[in-house]
Design brief:
By secondary structure, the protein is of the alpha/beta class. The protein is 42% helix and 16% strand. It folds into two domains: 130 residues, Alpha-Beta Complex (Aspartate Aminotransferase, domain 1); 241 residues, Aspartate Aminotransferase, domain 2. The strands form four sheets. Strands 2-10-9-8-5-3-4 form a seven-stranded mixed sheet, sandwiched between helices. The structure holds pyridoxal-5'-phosphate. The site of pyridoxal-5'-phosphate has 13 residues, from helix 3.
């Protein structure tokens, strides 16, 4: 028997409450019964995003939300600034180029966060920049970019801050309105603990103003239509009925386990414990200075072939972690602690890494990684807490 554990940064495990809710027979989407569910999911999403504005729920993966962010706010020939520090930063540039935008990039060394001063310098050099495109958490390099500092730069310019929050929304406390984010996007299969197929997106008042002038073509992803439909507790086209039902169930799970503050505290705790465990094993972190609370990148010893290592963990040990992308392929692993993850997922991940390292000929003292994590994680269970 091989029991499987999913410790990759998406898709992530789905809690039983959501699985059971989604197993209910499909109901028709143009009914008062579904509208009630839809309205409740929309309200939960506003809380999740930290916004008073509408959060549109689209039947697509997160990338569709990224595309919608651009087509709803920009016109061909507009200049945008892309923070390019990983695979998903590259994706922003590719989408922008596809739509004929003029792309300036700030190339950030993989594993490090963007320097806000470099963004400020680029905005000063190109005052016609209409948007800064960034990942809050660059999942491919396990880095957290300084979104609040970037918001301070765009706030008073005719320039939007467009944030891919696909592994930060529901992970780190970054309320959209208070932070000054103009467009925020996430997807269902990361922190929202659901199967893939749902994108959530919200626009600030400033971004809606840009949308009035934006000339890029859009049809399915026309957010003006979705905003209007949301006012009637429905969507412009057939919504992803099961996923919306599941999203509602997830909001109940969050509410019943301490709400959003505990959600963010848990991610922070699991990330800290994972990093402590990795360091205690004698391995190096990929992003020691600005680590993402969603997933932890770890350099493998040079003698270890990362491709074979992750395959061994997955197919022999039953533990799925992510490898590296681009030039990090084969050199790192990424241990996720996002969504439906808790203490013992961290312990499993760390001990599996130790066992796999030993199998690959690395000198390992068993238990050091999990022990370091346990020191951080045990406290929450104290009877005196
Ligand atoms: C997973 C991920 C995406 C891609 O989302 P899809 O749902 O696969 O389209 C984009 N950005 C980040 C930061 C991600 O982690």
């Amino acid at each position: 028997m091989l029991k499987r554990y999913l410790l990759a940064p998406g898709p992530t495990p789905v809690p039983a409450q959501a699985l059971l809710a989604m197993a209910e027979p499909i109901i028709h989407h143009r009914t008062p019964q579904f509208s009630e569910i839809f309205a409740s999911a929309a309200a939960g999403s506003r809380k999740l995003f930290g916004t008073d504005g509408p959060v549109m729920m689209l039947a697509s993966t997160g990338t569709g939300g990224m595309e919608a962010a651009i087509t709803n706010t920009m016109s061909a020939g507009d200049r945008v600034l892309v923070v390019n520090g990983g695979k998903f930063g590259e994706r922003w540039a590719e989408i922008a180029e596809t739509y004929g935008l003029v792309v300036s990039t700030i190339d950030v060394e993989w594993g490090t966060a963007v320097d806000p001063a470099a963004v400020a310098a680029s905005l000063d050099e190109h005052p016609d920049t209409r948007a800064v495109l960034v990942q809050a958490s660059e999942t491919s390099t396990t880095v957290l970019h300084p979104v609040p500092q970037l918001a301070a730069l765009t706030r008073d310019r005719e320039c939007l801050l467009i944030v891919d929050g696909i592994t930060s929304v529901g992970v780190a406390d970054m309320p959209m309105d208070a932070t000054g984010i103009d467009v925020l996007v996430t997807g269902s299969q990361k922190a929202m603990m659901l199967p893939p197929g749902l994108a959530l997106i919200s626009l600030s008042a400033k971004a809606w103003r840009f949308s009035d002038q934006a000339k890029l073509p859009r049809y399915y992803f026309d957010l003006r239509k979705e905003r209007k439909s949301l006012e009637d507790d429905t969507s412009a086209y057939t919504p992803a009925v099961s996923l919306i039902v599941g999203l509602n169930a997830v909001y109940r799970v969050i509410e019943n386990s301490g709400g959003f503050p505990e959600l963010y505290a848990r991610h922070k705790r699991l990330a800290e414990a994972t990093r402590a465990g990795v360091v205690a094993m004698g391995l190096k972190l990929l992003a020691p200075d600005s680590p993402s609370p969603a997933t932890t990148g770890v350099w493998l010893p040079e003698s270890v072939d990362g491709g074979k290592f992750t395959k061994h963990m997955r197919d022999v040990m039953g533990v799925t972690v992510a490898g590296g992308q681009g030039h990090l392929k084969g050199k790192i692993i990424r241990l996720a602690h996002i969504g439906y993850a808790d203490t013992f997922d961290v312990i499993i991940g760390l001990s599996a890494v130790e066992m796999a390292l030993a199998e690959f000929g690395h000198d390992v003292e068993f238990g050091k990684g999990p022990a370091a994590a346990q020191k951080i994680l045990a406290e929450q269970y104290s009877r005196n807490a």
